[in-house]
Amino acid sequence: MPDGRALEDSTSDISTWADSSLSSGAYEATEGAGTPHYRRTNSRRNGANGEYSANCRDELKSHVECVKMFLRLSTLSGTEYAPGTQDDKADRCHNSRDVYVKCMKEMRSRGPRDLSDKVAWEAEPPVCEAELTVHASCVGQYLKSSILKRRPYPFLDPSYTGGDDNTYADDKCFATRAQFEKCMLKKDIKVLEELQKAGIACQGFITEEVRNPETRSREGFDLISLDGRIHVPLARIGYPGPKVGRYGVCIDDFERSALPLLDAMHAENKDGSVVILDEIGKMELCSERFEPRALRVLTGDRPCLTTIAKNGGGFIAAAKKLAGIQLVEVTPSNRDKMVSEIALNLCRDS
Fold this sequence. Notes:
By secondary structure, the protein is α+β, with helices and mostly antiparallel strands. The protein has 2 domains: 11-156, no CATH class; 172-349, Rossmann fold. Helices cover 39% and strands 17% of the residues. The protein has 10 helices and 11 strands. The strands form 2 sheets. The protein has an 8-stranded mixed sheet with strand order 4-11-10-5-6-7-9-8, with helices on both faces. A 3-stranded antiparallel sheet has the order 1-2-3. Helix 8 links the parallel strand 10 and strand 11 (304-309). The two termini are 39 Å apart. Residues 1-15, 21-61, 72-101 and 110-186 have low confidence and may be disordered.
């Protein structure tokens, strides 16, 4: 999959995406000389075989255009779209026929210039259900991976205007000290719940997405202390602070709230308690005063569970090399087991 970046109609992105779709089984190569022929699985457009004479990458480029249109229209109409397996309880795929029809009408009005397979388009305009079923299967692998890895899919956001959006796009990690682990995917809330069930006191903060109640598009992030006494904006779209992707960081609010909390945790140094920092990322590190305080907590005596960006230099890279830090990758197949293991290790060291 593209490295967490927004899908754009660039050769590199489309090539990477196409290769991934081929390897995931969304497409099947067929026998043929010259230009490769591909058959789309579950395709009903060109008969039972669903064979296409267009190059796979060009075909995927067409799908990007159509799916972008559909996702945007879905969002604007308040329709949620989360492709994946039908038995996945997390999927909330409300396939509104009205949205389909609107999408198809819009695509037809744009004409064959947006499609590589002009002959097929002119001979048989796409039927909404069949086409979007195929499109969903083609991009579903990317979208589902994005959801599982907490990567944003910016076309779900009506305010998205194009360009790279690397904000929170990289895989997240858990940094843990002493006998604990550092892992991908944000599971610290579940770990916190397990610790609380075990009667372990926890101090620290978490970050939480802020979404528009009507469009469900992400507008920013809030910082919340575990005791609930602090709840301040961390970043917002359009805020005149240091920029991280589309978001302006609310430095004053962050420093006024998070820094005293870090100082208090260091000064109190409560025995038998666990420190949770969600997270050490690009937004938090826009504050030069945050870094030394975070380092002091990470190198302290208490067990510490920290969400940290997988990629990045400077303090992010240095924190991963601190003595006692262990890194463990969490995948969709082991993420639930990791929650209990991390919680157990934290309990042992608290």
